[in-house]
Amino acid sequence: MAWFGLLLLILVLLVLRQSLVLVLAVATAYVHVFLANSKIEFLIQDFWFTVDREILLSIPLFMLAGNIMSRGSIARRLIDFMSSLTSWLPGGLGIACVLSCAAFAAINGSSIVTMLAIGSIMYPALISKGYNKSFALGAIASAGTLGIIIPPSIPLILYGIMTERDISKLFVAGIGPGLLLMIMFAFYALFVNRGAQREPFTLAGFSRAFFGGAFALALPVLMIGGIYIGWFSPTEAGAVSLAYALLIEFLIHEDEHATPAPAGAGLGQRVAHYFATREMTFKTLIDVILETTKLLATLLPLLAIAGSLNTILDHSGAPKEMVTYLSGLVQDRWALMLGINILLLIVGCLMDVGSAILILAPLLEPLAVAKGFDPIHFGIIMITNLEIGYLTPPVGLNLIVAMAAFKESFGTIVKAVIPFIVIMAIWLFIVVTYPPLSLTLVGN
């Protein structure tokens, strides 16, 4: 009867169109009081225990670093370099779009930031060069999803927190699948745009783009190499990413429209002029910090509530009972994995990635491990499924953001991403059925 009351309460809140934070908070309080015979004050205690973790510092650090890079010139310089590298190929600018998204994803950890930072520059460039509008929209929206599989990845951090798995290993495991998807997207861009306008490769243009973007290009190498070699933890990687972004945007990258300091200016005037002509100003930095804080204000309450709910469910033994029941009900491990994939694809259509991880990861991971799947591999499988959810209606986040950013109808965006969803479905099959793609670099 108590479980029926919980379901009824959740249904009523959903019908009343309440926020997910409120629904989860009320459901968690109900579980504490009526199902676990606990005290309501323990709810607040669990909230604190969930957010009182050092690894959580990596999330705001990566988010702030990504927003600084998108407001500065790192994205533009990455695009310039990739374009100089691929402009001579059929569909070269489309390939540059995919490679730029992959490189930018490797330094910020967010799908939305990647799509907006690269798309705001690349979309008009693709259209001006005669590329099909549908391809341009689909490529930007889809390649933007590389931000949640290529390390560092905020969804992978959330998965590691909720399942207590090594986040460094999850990061390394995401490299192979991320590179594979990048290659598949690049080949598709080459194939469908084989008749598009090409530009000759020039050493002078390449050198100019390389030296102009040298500091931006070094960051993905530093991030992935540092995590893989073990130079720094995910939290330290976030701090390195933020410090590096601030350093090159405030001190090195100059606004291309800046004018020289006035002749005869004193030392103080020259110093003031120097900082005024950098890509990042203190006013812009304050705006970026405020934007990041607003994003964190929606994420951290969800994380705290989900952590409390997982704690009380774990104490009740409900997840273990579910694992035992479903393991006995479905004997074949691949049949079980097929069911989990179908569930995650459906969930991806209806929920945002963060919420899906917070709710489902602690329940599904023990079930997969009980059937013999490596926990790190399953983490990549889950993120891969939910990555497709970024492109599936009605709640595909990249679709909604692309609709607003590029001023196109929702239907137009959906049609544009269909070929890329097909590619990602093939990619998902490879990731699920070929564990070495994820686990070789991890050493498992």
Helix content: over 70%
Count of separate DSSP helical elements: 23
Shape: globular
Class derived from helix and strand content: mainly alpha
Low-confidence stretches: none
Mean pLDDT, rounded to whole units?
A: 81
Number of strands: 0
> How much of the sequence is in beta strands?
under 5%
User: Terminal Cα separation, in Å?
Assistant: 45 Å
**Largest sheet, described in full?**
none
Order of helix and strand elements from N to C terminus:
HHHHHHHHHHHHHHHHHHHHHHH
Q: Give the C-alpha Rg.
A: 23 Å
Provide the descriptors you would attach to this structure in a database record:
444 residues, mainly alpha, globular
Describe the structure.
- There is one protein chain.
- With 444 residues, this protein is mainly alpha-helical.
- The chain has one domain (38-254, 270-439).
- It contains 23 helices and no strands.
- The protein has helices at 2-15, 20-35, 40-51, 58-71, 74-86, 92-108, 111-128, 133-143, 154-163, 167-173, 175-192, 203-212, 214-229, 234-252, 267-276, 282-316, 318-329, 333-350, 353-370, 375-389, 397-406, 410-433, 436-439.
- It is globular, with a radius of gyration of 23 Å.
- The model has no long low-confidence stretch (mean pLDDT 81).
